[in-house]
Every structure is written in structure tokens, then in C-alpha cells.
User: Which sequence fits this backbone?
């Protein structure tokens, strides 16, 4: 009988101690975790904004070239650009007929524009080489509306 009471007392003390331990230790980790999660995010968003403004600055450095189209030639009839570098091409129709400017190998072309008008296109050559440009209207290509664009590595 005396042994049984001693065992019950020990169990009650252990149980009470266990509840106290769980109550005291359980709430502790969560405020620490929350605090450590909040601090890194403002730094991360500042870095992203800085990277974006650097990219915008690089985009504005396009090489600008002008080509005139007339019967039946291009002025200039040679161009040199760099692979991977953006080109801003201004095509002016200084003739009397409609003309366009096409490079099949680079997959680029202007619209057919009428006499006295201008079109601006932007492209980035993705391969090096020497390619022909021409006017796709009527027989203008056969009549001499051709030129060469050199894309350097
Ligand atoms: Cu033409």
C-alpha cells in the first residue's frame, strides 16, 4: 500500500512536470522563426530593382543606321553590324515607287513603304556572316536594289 502511494506521487509529479515543460518550451521557437524570416526580404527586393535599371541602360545603346531606297538601288549598299548587338535601322524611301528592305537569312524586313516615307525597325542579328539585302517589290531586286550586310562575331 505504501509503495502504491509512492508510485502515484511520482507519476503525478512527472505528469505535472511534463505539462509545465511542454507549456514553457512550445511557444518559444515561433517568435524567433518569424523574426528571422522578416529581415532578409527588404534586401532582396532592393537588389532586384538595381538589376532591372542596369538592363535598361544596356538596351538604349543600339547602333543606328540609315538606308535609303530608290530606283533601283540602296544608299548605302553595304552595312556592317555586330552579332548580338541591337541595330536601329531607319529605312527611307527617297524614290518614286514603293520599296522595302529585306534580309532573308536574318528573318528581318521592313514594310513596303511609299515614296517620301520612313520606317524604323529594330533587330539583333543572331548569326555572323555576309548576307544580301534587297527590295521585294516587283523586279526591283533584279534591277539592282541589292546590298550586303556584314555581321561580325
Ligand atoms: Cu523597290
Assistant:
Amino acid at each position: 500500500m505504501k509503495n502504491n502511494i509512492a508510485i502515484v506521487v511520482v507519476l503525478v509529479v512527472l505528469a505535472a512536470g511534463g505539462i509545465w515543460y511542454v507549456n514553457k518550451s512550445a511557444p518559444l521557437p515561433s517568435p524567433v522563426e518569424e523574426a528571422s524570416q522578416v529581415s532578409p526580404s527588404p534586401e532582396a527586393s532592393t537588389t532586384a530593382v538595381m538589376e532591372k535599371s542596369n538592363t535598361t541602360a544596356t538596351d538604349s545603346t543600339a547602333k543606328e543606321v540609315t538606308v535609303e531606297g530608290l530606283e533601283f538601288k540602296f544608299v548605302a549598299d553595304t552595312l556592317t553590324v555586330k552579332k548580338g548587338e541591337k541595330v536601329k535601322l531607319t529605312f527611307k524611301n527617297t524614290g518614286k515607287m514603293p520599296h522595302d528592305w529585306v534580309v532573308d537569312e536574318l528573318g528581318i524586313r521592313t514594310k513596303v513603304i511609299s515614296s517620301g516615307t520612313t520606317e524604323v525597325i529594330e533587330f539583333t542579328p543572331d548569326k555572323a556572316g555576309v548576307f544580301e539585302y534587297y527590295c521585294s517589290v516587283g523586279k526591283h531586286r533584279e534591277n539592282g536594289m541589292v546590298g550586303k550586310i556584314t555581321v561580325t562575331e
The domain at 63-152 is CATH 2.60.40.420 (Immunoglobulin-like). Confidence is low (pLDDT under 50) at residues 7-11, 30-58. The first helix runs from residue 2 to 25. Residues 69, 97, 99, 135, 137, 140, 145 surround copper (II) ion (CB under 6 Å).
